[in-house]
């Protein structure tokens, strides 16, 4: 196998250049600058955010590391994590936490609404702290670039929370495409059932009193003052221009991860929201189709990326045989796979392709959840959102000159289309290094190991074009993008929004 891999690296030459750096997916920082720790020595981690998604990030890291400080503006939503890590000091303002706990913290998790990702992460990196930042990396293009620059300047280990980059299937997809399995890829179609929160509404939501357990001023952070509404927090903020990046920002860093890796996309030359439903002054649309155009890359032709959100079923794509399942298999099939497949030690999210795909039970209509909703409002919200997420389809489809490949949300169940082609298919030899697990990847980098697979030198250019797509929904027509000069060249109003504004009392650095 080693001989085959050596030949394979040689054969693909320029195609792999830049896709497989010598040290993995980034440049290794010096161990001294990182404050090197033995792999057996635990990191001391602080978290900015403790409720919602932050809870799972914290729990995952706590399996092997120490959680030593917690910060959240919503003490009710954070209560379960606060109680579980009762010895860790608690804060509402991350700036205060970073000042008081600076000597006690090695690394910081940032899992808060999109518009505060970059400011919180930059404050942590300035203090020499490694950072894990949820997707999308930032709310604006300027912030994406600033974070990449800061990671280099402060020589810290970084990771964006797009689990698909750690997935076995994403790597298999890249290796299949590089081996010529479907020829030259000229189109990718990617889709999601999100949003499962309000979008496309004509008016701002009704306001109300701020709960006693919630610090509204700190939640607003860098954004301008406005009255509180429970439609902003704790969950529906994703749908607002000011706070989130919409369904694209929520899911594209997952679903488009395999295309970004396999096609080495770099920066697009243009983006256009070609259709949308529910255009609004305040919200992202309830449904949209976005087109990105990427130029030719070394050994690869120009490619069009189409993004569809708000779908309950997979999109109708010309050339796909009738009845073919694209993207994520239905729940009934996934359940069958889990009972028969033992994936590589907890390193993948989802599943790898298996011959059981051919024998799995046929798709069923999702059944109604008969369990009563919990009385706790946060647990009830989580259950309701979970139900909505299970309805609909997510995935991507690569269209090549010789065939098609589809992958799931995180790059799992990568397979040729028609799937019958997989009966005799042999995956090509591995040329990409495999991840030890999404969080372990970052933890290892924090201790002086290889850079994490979605470190900011990789994540920033990727998140940059995702945020450009979110921006396109606010304007009619194509936006022409000059990546080198970080400028939208044909729309001054859109160009003015590639940088954030900061409320008085707040600063990026």
* Major beta sheet summary: 9 strands, mixed
Number of helices: 16
**Could you tell me the mean pLDDT?**
88
- How many E strands? 15
The percent of residues in helical segments reads: 25-40%
CA-CA gap between termini: 48 Å
Main attributes of the structure:
509 residues; alpha/beta; Rossmann fold; 2 domains; nine-stranded mixed beta sheet; six-stranded parallel beta sheet; disordered N terminus
Topology, pairings included?
Layout: H1 2-16, H2 31-34, E1 44-48, H3 53-62, E2 66-71, H4 79-84, E3 90-91, H5 94-100, E4 107-110, H6 117-126, E5 130-134, H7 141-154, E6 158-161, H8 168-178, E7 185-191, H9 216-220, H10 246-255, H11 257-263, E8 270-277, E9 287-294, E10 303-309, H12 331-340, H13 377-389, E11 395-400, E12 404-407, E13 415-417, H14 438-446, H15 456-472, E14 479-482, E15 487-488, H16 492-495
Helix pairs in contact: 6-7, 7-15, 8-11, 10-15
Word description of this protein:
There is one protein chain. The chain is of the alpha/beta class. The chain folds into two domains: 20-164 and 441-460, NAD(P)-binding Rossmann-like Domain (Rossmann fold, 3-Layer(aba) Sandwich); 168-430, no CATH class. Helix content is 30%, strand content 15%. It has helices at residues 2-16, 31-34, 53-62, 79-84, 94-100, 117-126, 141-154, 168-178, 216-220, 246-255, 257-263, 331-340, 377-389, 438-446, 456-472, 492-495; strands at 44-48, 66-71, 90-91, 107-110, 130-134, 158-161, 185-191, 270-277, 287-294, 303-309, 395-400, 404-407, 415-417, 479-482, 487-488. The protein has a nine-stranded mixed beta sheet. A six-stranded parallel beta sheet has the order 3-2-1-4-5-6, sandwiched between helices. Strand 14 (479-482) and strand 15 form a beta hairpin. The longest helix is centred in the C-terminal third of the chain and has 17 residues, at 456-472. It is globular and about 60 Å long. It starts with a helix and ends in a 14-residue tail after the last helix.
